[in-house]
Amino acid sequence: MHHSDYPLSEVPTSARKGLLSTSAVLLGFTFFTATMWAGGTLGQAFPIGQLLWIILIGNLLLGGYAAALAYIACKSGLNSVLMGRFCFGEKGSKLSDFILGFTQIGWYAWGTATIALVLVRTTGMPEWLEIPLMVLFGFGFCVTAMIGYKGMDLLSRFAVPAMMLFILISLFTGLVDVRGFAGLSQQTPTESMSVAAAITVIIGTFISGGTQATNWSRFAKTPKIAVISTMAAFFVGNGLMVLTGALGTMIYQQADIVDVLIAQGFVTIAVLMLFLNIWTTQDNTIYNFAVAGCNLLRTEKRRLVTVGGAAIGTVLAVGGMYNLLIPFLVLLGTFIPPMGGVIMADFWLKHKGRYPALDAAQLPDFNRRGLAAYALGAGAAYFSPLLPPLVGVAAAAGSYAVLLRLNHATLSDTLPSPAKQ
């Protein structure tokens, strides 16, 4: 814990990582139970042939969005909340800090509650242990995040291969039980869902994570490594999670890989999968919160903010965040993506693909164009009947491009006075 992982500055060249390291951390992030549950809803609504195409398209769109931000992060050495200073302003960026931090603390609360409840149900422990376990895991899972990138890297290098092996064992066993793809093709949907809604669910499950995956892609040595590792996580890794949940529902009527492994008789593997699955996402999630919190408070004390976030997440878990997953996904899919749209438009159109050094940049308190474009993008996503996340990104980026060409007094940005700097 000798350094703070550069929460308020660019990642220097000396701290950059290779493909194995960035891929391990990002894959650990996307191996998440909630994604499998979302896949379970798709498994009930589509035949296997159509389902595979939907998973492919949805995760390709999600991966492309996350990879575009990863490229910018690697080029600049900045994460999304620091990029927000350029497109929203010094004070205006606190909006992105709050929204991104709030969503991550919500996921942390959900994961903390999930592991406690599932562990009690799986092992037959008394129900009164649920709350003590939430407290234990709420603070325990933040340890690797407190260490920083190195701690999450070490955990992911062990956890990701292990989880991949467990998933392959489960998928192989499931295909044997259902008599292969011939048996899957005979499964009939029990629910109805439009293709657009299904793609929205896939994107919505991890669009918040994709926006904040810049916290690790900015550590990549080259933009190529950043893009490849991000696509590996958000296209391949997240796609595998969706597929696992869908097949589990189709074969065993269980979306969660832990429940499926138990149904297959792999109880020990199921418990290990539960811990690794939740832990590798929880530490990334609370790390995201800490980075957003550091920018919001303008403090280098990332570890202190991490513990504070873990405390908030634990309180929310005990208070019943477990039951609020679906509304939370809708919130994420509506209000997070437009932020990425503004960031991309600002980087390429206003700054021509290169930010100035953050500590030397003369930034306004409020970038009115960026804030207006975000509001328009969020509004478009909220009212869109079709693919809200993609509509939000396109509307925000397009609005920013148009506003950049307008020379109007109400849109002019005022730099802070020397006394404020």
Please describe the structure with a list of short key phrases separated by commas or semicolons.
Hydantoin permease; about 425 residues; mainly alpha; globular; single chain; 19 helices
Question: How would you describe the overall organization of this protein?
Answer:
It is a single chain. The chain has one domain: Hydantoin permease. Helix content is 73%, strand content 0%. The chain is globular and about 65 Å long. It is a multi-pass membrane protein. GO terms for molecular function: cytosine transmembrane transporter activity.
The total count of helices amounts to 19
CATH-level-4 superfamily name: Hydantoin permease
The count of domains is 1
Structural class: mainly alpha
Rg from alpha-carbon coordinates: 21 Å
Oligomer: single chain
What percent of residues are in strands? under 5%
What's the rounded overall pLDDT mean?
90
Biggest pleated sheet: none
